[in-house]
Amino acid sequence: MKRSAQIRTGPVHRGHKFLNVRWLILSIFVVCFLISGLRFADNKAEPYPLVYPANFGGRINVPSNNPTTREGVALGRKLFYEKKLSADNSMSCGTCHRQKLAFTDGLAFSVGVDKSLTSRNSMSLVNLLWVRNFFWDGRSASLEDQAVFPMTNEHEMGQSLETSVRKLQQTPGYREMFRKAFGEGDIDADKIRKALAQFERTLISADSPYDRYLAGTYQPTPQELRGMNLFMDAPAPERQVRGANCGHCHGGPKTFKELFHNNGLDAEPADSGREVVSRQAEDKGRFRVPTLRNIALTAPYMHDGRFGTLDEVLDHYNEHIRDSPTLSSFLKGVSNEKGGRTLMLTSGEKADILAFLNMLTDTTFINNPAFSDPD
């Protein structure tokens, strides 16, 4: 009986042992799954809140394959100020786009790593979230594409993206930042340009006195109000309406429109502008209409930096428009006097317009620590 009992209980004991092993394997699988899930959750980047006034409009430009995240923006900010992205480790994007100058550099033409000059003036990086054509000639349709030009141009930062990737791979900390931003630590050219674009989309300027006026929290001075009205209105001497005619191109809360215009700088433009991209003769001498945000900080002006002051800019539009076949129709035959051949603003009206232009300076933007060099 004792032996037969052992025979009966033996298989039951082995069955329990089999079950225990199976539960152990299942438990290990569950733990590994949970750890994997935690890692996945840790790699999931958090959306970045893009905050802007409702009057800026919701027609923003964010590609579906590069959503703006906190981790991506942090990486892009680091890369924006990273000098290892240049051939001699002396320049970063921030070299030609300085925050205190509303992300310009104060020069007519920027100086590249080879000490040569760029062919055009460095544009302000502001409210790019709404822009659809980048550079003065609109050659790039996205910030991701735009980022490649200055990094790889031999007369700017002068370094291939392949070399930039190798440098970052050898720099402590970057693999982890790329992992947090994109879910994996592999560093490649595509992620570099995507991260830079994410940061640049956060450069939103929306707290100037003009913005506060539109929000009903700032009362302009009488001179600022006069300048604002002149800025927005087109001249109509037959109705006794005086204006500077600026609103056609720079009207609206963001002070720019997605347009290209020949603004009468030259009768025969030395720089063909948009024509080089479009291959259309009617685009000769036309350039992108830039925003006037923080305009008092972004001298010199125009695509070639020919004007050192806003007074010179106003003098140009008031007295020195050069006619040509592609001159903007908004600038033809416009005057504050019947039969006038120029705009014919008075010195007092010019001073009023300058007062309004200074309302566009956003001190919050140029001092925002979220936009500064993280190092």
Record keyword descriptors for this entry:
mainly alpha, disordered N terminus, Cytochrome Bc1 Complex, Chain D, domain 2, globular, 2 domains, 2 strands, 375 residues, two-stranded antiparallel ribbon
The CATH topology assignment of the largest domain is Cytochrome Bc1 Complex, Chain D, domain 2
The arrangement of helices and strands along the chain is HHHHHHHHHHHEHEHHH
What is the overall pLDDT average?
90
Low-confidence stretches: 1-42
Overall 3D shape:
globular
Cross-sheet strand order for the largest sheet: 1-2
| Assigned CATH architecture of the largest domain | Orthogonal Bundle
CATH class of the largest domain: Mainly Alpha
**Number of strand segments:** 2
Q: What is the number of helical segments per DSSP (H or I, 4+ residues)?
A: 15
For the sheet with most strands, the description reads: 2 strands, antiparallel
- Rg from Cα: 29 Å
- Helix fraction bin: 25-40%
| The CATH superfamily title of the largest domain | Cytochrome c-like domain
Q: How far apart are the termini? A: 83 Å
Strand content: under 5%
User: Given the helix and strand composition, which structural class is it?
Assistant: mainly alpha
**What is the total number of structural domains?**
2
Describe the structure.
The protein is an all-alpha fold and 375 residues long. It folds into two domains: 54-204, Cytochrome Bc1 Complex, Chain D, domain 2 (Orthogonal Bundle), CATH 1.10.760.10; 209-365, Cytochrome c-like domain (Cytochrome Bc1 Complex, Chain D, domain 2). Helices cover 39% and strands 1% of the residues. It is built from 15 helices and two strands. The protein has helices spanning 2-43, 70-80, 93-96, 143-146, 148-152, 161-169, 174-182, 189-201, 209-214, 222-232, 247-250, 275-278, 310-319, 347-358, 363-366; strands at 260-261, 287-288. The chain has a two-stranded antiparallel sheet with strand order 1-2. Helix 10 (222-232) packs across helix 14 (347-358). The radius of gyration is 29 Å and the shape is globular. Residues 1-42 have low confidence and may be disordered.
